Amino acid sequence: MFNGVMLDELALPGLLVGGSLAFEQFVAPARVLFGQVSDAHPLAGRRRVPYVLIGTALFCGLAVLSVPLIFQVHRLWTTGVQPALALAIAALCGLFALYGLAIAMATTPYLALVIDRTSEAGRPRAIGIIWCMLTVGIVIGAIAISISLRQLDGIDDPVLLEPALFKFMTLVALAVFSLTVLATWGIEPALVRSSMGQAGQAREDAVTLGQAWRLITSSGQVLIFFSFLVLFTLGLFLQDPILEGYGGQVFGMTIAARSQLNAFWGGGSLVGLLVAGLWIVPWLGKLPTARLGCRLIVLTLLLLLLSGLTAQPVVLKIVMLFFGLATGIATNSALCLMLDLTLPEAAGTFVGVWGLAQALARALGKVIGGGLLDLGRLLPFGGAYPPYALVLSIEILVAASALLLLARLNVRQFKEDTERSLERALALELG
After folding, report:
1. The pLDDT value given to residue 209
2. Which of 53, 161, 261, 328 is in the most buried spot, having the most CB atoms within 10 Å?
3. What letters, b where the CB count within 10 A reaches 16 and e where it falls short, cover 214-236?
């Protein structure tokens, strides 16, 4: 919503809009720190939920504060007053960086909580349900926002737009925080108190930040899986910034028709997540299912590339449905592997590392996808199709590289290396 308002109604430059919003991703390394902090420093007798609630309260508050700041940047951009404009832009970038930190504080301990509260055997089903509910929540949220903002259709006067958006964002923030409190109520049991009366003096408290870093670097499997997550996520989202342009310029689809493409992709993903979590992973296993999902992603990306030669919108919609199905299957198994490649003694830290890989890849996907499209337009090929074909061809190569890396992954080796390193670290700590 902010992206659209800043670009359309306020007519701010795309570089300013994209650059400021990207600061949310630039602070992704903080995920590792928040994960380790939730491992080692319980609050109110719990390790995860307090951080989820604090992070949620912070990003809700920052979302509300961003509205007047965005309009202040617009006013200063219009008048060109310096250095006030530069300071306002810096403040906007800083606000979105803080927003990213708050998101990291809320989401990393939440994923660690999934590890805490599920067994290895039940984790695939839990992940399938969680990500299905996430997808459903996104759809419901998008519909609710669309209905709520109908009263603003046709309003482009900033004087009228600012108070309306501020009121809307305040109501959304209150709703989001209330839902978070409701969703996390009673989900995490209190830590058992020791004879000294201190909650949470368990084995994992001995893992300091330095020891956590040694754990992360103790196995080459960590680097392999980190690299796989980066390539896997890029293989999914490199097309994201150019998909609607692909539908419009190559297939001649209208704005309304293009907006349906993500619905087809989301519907396929929902089915894929459920099918993988309930049947495929328990039947084949996590690593074989991940390989199957990656192969299906490569195949459906190839179909997405070839569909442009037909220029038939119905073909594109069908391909997006199958691409979503492949995405759901691969995502479920990749998330299961992510949680398996995690020590319970340092769950938050490892989840932070895996979240960092995904966040960096999402940010790179936005930049590289648009950059490759611009590069393709400079090449001496006529027509609208070749630039998009370049992006999709590179995306196929990236997804294939992720599949090759997956062949080198060994979960047992990871557990042996990290558990051995943990024992050494704790032995040194005990003297």
Report:
1. 54
2. 328
3. bbbebbebbebbbebbbbbbbbb
